Structures are given as C-alpha cells and as structure tokens.
DNA sequence: CAACTTGTTGATCGTTTGATCAATAGTAGA
DNA sequence: TCTACTATTGATCAAACGATCAACAAGTTG
C-alpha cells in the first residue's frame, strides 16, 4: 500500500511555478535527454500533477524546444566565459577545443543529437536548433576572425572554417555517445586538422 | 466504410517471409528513420498483420539493431566499391569525401544520428553501432595507411586520423539534417582540414 | 466575513506502442 | 484422401503518451 504520497502542491505564483517547471524540464533533459521530456516526467520531478505542467505550456513541442534552447544557451555562455580571458585567439581556440572534447559533456551532446533527429518532427525545435547553431557559429567565427586579424590564423573563408569546426566537434562528441573509452584522445586528434584549416604550422595550436 | 482492405496474406516460406520483412524494415527506416520502425509500420508496408512481424522477430530492439546494421553495411560496401578503382589513396580519399558530403545521403545520416541517441536505451543497437563504426574506421584506416605507405600522406597516428575523418564527416552531415542550404559547401570546406591532418600542402587533396 | 479569482488536481479520453495467444487456413507428407 | 504441421491472423492486453475539463481550494479583494 505504498502509493506515491502527494498531498497537495503548494500554491505558487505563475511566474514562480513556470520557472520551477522550466528548471525541472532542464534537469530531466540533462539527465535523460530531451526525448525523456514528458508531462509526467517533469511533473513527477517537482511532485505536481501532470495537468499542471500542461497548464503552463501550450503543448509539448514548445516545451521541448524551449528546454533545449535553455540548456544549449547556458552552455555557450559558460564556455564563452571560460575562454574570454585568454590572451590570444589561438589560446582561446585551443582551450575551447580541449574543453568541448574532454568527454565530460555527454549529457549536452545527447541533447544535441536528439535535437537533430527530433527536429524533423518538431518544427519549433528545428527552428531553435538552427538559432542555437547560428549562435555557436558566430562565437567560433569571432575567434577565427580575431585570429586572422592578429595574424595567427590564415584562411579566406572564416565562416566556412567556423562551420567546419562546429561539425568536427559535434561529430566527435556524437561518436562518444556510443563509443566509450576514447574520450581522452578526442582532444588531441583534432589539432592537426585545425592547423590545416587555419594555415598554422604543425603543432602550433597546442603550444603554450 | 473504406476500411483498409486486406484479404489474407499469401503464405510464404519462413525464409522468404523473413527476408521480405527485413526488406520492408529497411525501406521504412530509409524513408522515416529507425525511430519509425514499429510492428505496425513494417506490417502495413507488406500488407500483413502486425502479429506476423512480431512472430518473426524476438523483439523490436533486435529488429531495429539488425535493420540499422543492414543499411549501414550496404552503404559501406557501395561507397567502398565506388572508390576502389581509383589509382591513388589521395584520389580515393578525395572522391570519398565528395561522395559522403554531397548532401544526397540525408536518409542514412538520419539513421546514424538516431542510432547514436537510441543506442543509449537499446544495447543491441549500441553494439551494432560500435561494430559498424569499427568497420568504417577500418575502411578509412586502409586508405590512410596506404597513402602513408605511398608517401602521399604523412602522419604518426593513422588510426587517430581515421577516427577524426569519421567524426568530421558525421558531424557535418548531422548538421545538415536541420540546416539545409549549405549542402553544396560541405565537401569543399573539409579539404584544408584533411590536408592538415595528413601533412599535405594546401590544395593538394582536391587536385586532379 | 463574504464573494471572487485562479492555481491545482483527479478523472478521463483517444492514440500509439510492443507483446501474447487461441483460432484459422494453407501446405506437405503418409 | 486424410492427417499433421505451421504460417498467418484477429482479438486483446497493459503501458505510456498528450491533452482536456469540471471541480476543488488557497489566496485576494470588497
């Protein structure tokens, strides 16, 4: 006779409850991916009736899209801050790659991979994915163009290089979702490829 | 009063029926992804009762895993044959990249992306994904080592380069699932990166 | 203190899914 | 021809999903 005991949820202001639901959704997504986002999984996490979650969201599509956006946006800000203080574009890029490929971000990688797939059935999510990819591209493009301006990098297609970088990072991380064990080597492998794209001599990226 | 009309399926030998079901599953997966593989979607395609599909498969997990394997294996064989006759490793690699990044293989890309995500809930699929990735890696490794032996490429970590190549290809293709429009540029962007990994001078990959 | 507003819930609906099983109807062998 | 075998099916189940809505109750206002 041990049913889930929930008396009655505390009454909160709409803004507060909406924020709580959004936070719960982010937690669920980080733990089990955005494919695990259901009215019931979110409601259970904050010990609330599923209908309440539905009451605060027009539909699941938009909730998934917004949750994806929140997580990915936060990561971009976090990573951006982590790199902002470094002296040179080369150092920023090198540290960025080390950070993104250190194998500790599989939770966010899963979210990206699921988003690419689910985006084909959820247009709101697809639009959000495009927006966030644009933001990441702009971030990388900033580093690349700065490096070109300072003479560290050399390319006639900075935007293309930025897309290429993003593709490499995402692809290697996606592989790690199923292939364990090689996380430590992910970062080191990408070096020469980046040097080739940016006209650097071999090993120049990782130095110092 | 227009119900789906199906009298009774023609009686076939187990081997024949099993092959038919496998083929139907591959068709469904290529059209709508492996997430669309259900007893009912497969049964409907060959105009058969859903229970018959279940009768031929122990469970959905293995059906999905085997269907994934069949599709991906076929593509590797197809692409391998497409490139086998070319004279030099450089030509093989160049043509391979052009082929895989020409934007005409989104169907298979969707299957890969879904497999990385679904592999976390379907161990049989995850194992199959690892196996197929190993095969692709071995294929790329063969080209790289041949190039090194013939003096076209230069690297002290051919296996790492092969993984890197695979990651780049998959990442760029995955992006295209949501970001259309740039398919024509995918192939051209990867060139300098590859040249950097393989110690080639700029532009050497694409020549002739 | 009464009336009103509204945050919250249980109940319920319609779908879709994988799975099981007794019953049916072709097919081959005696 | 009769019998044994088995490929195939309809019916059905439980689980999980998004969604809706009348009803309840905790605040707020007058």
From TrEMBL, chains A, B:
<dbReference type="GO" id="GO:0000976">
    <property type="term" value="F:transcription cis-regulatory region binding"/>
</dbReference>
<dbReference type="InterPro" id="IPR009057">
    <property type="entry name" value="Homeodomain-like_sf"/>
</dbReference>
<keyword id="KW-0678">Repressor</keyword>
<feature type="domain" description="BetI-type transcriptional repressor C-terminal">
    <location>
        <begin position="89"/>
        <end position="179"/>
    </location>
</feature>
<dbReference type="InterPro" id="IPR001647">
    <property type="entry name" value="HTH_TetR"/>
</dbReference>
<keyword id="KW-0805">Transcription regulation</keyword>
<dbReference type="Pfam" id="PF13977">
    <property type="entry name" value="TetR_C_6"/>
</dbReference>
<keyword id="KW-0238">DNA-binding</keyword>
<dbReference type="InterPro" id="IPR039538">
    <property type="entry name" value="BetI_C"/>
</dbReference>
<protein>
    <submittedName>
        <fullName>AcrR family transcriptional regulator</fullName>
    </submittedName>
</protein>
<dbReference type="InterPro" id="IPR050109">
    <property type="entry name" value="HTH-type_TetR-like_transc_reg"/>
</dbReference>
<feature type="domain" description="HTH tetR-type">
    <location>
        <begin position="21"/>
        <end position="65"/>
    </location>
</feature>
<dbReference type="InterPro" id="IPR036271">
    <property type="entry name" value="Tet_transcr_reg_TetR-rel_C_sf"/>
</dbReference>
<dbReference type="GO" id="GO:0003700">
    <property type="term" value="F:DNA-binding transcription factor activity"/>
</dbReference>
<keyword id="KW-0804">Transcription</keyword>
<dbReference type="Pfam" id="PF00440">
    <property type="entry name" value="TetR_N"/>
</dbReference>
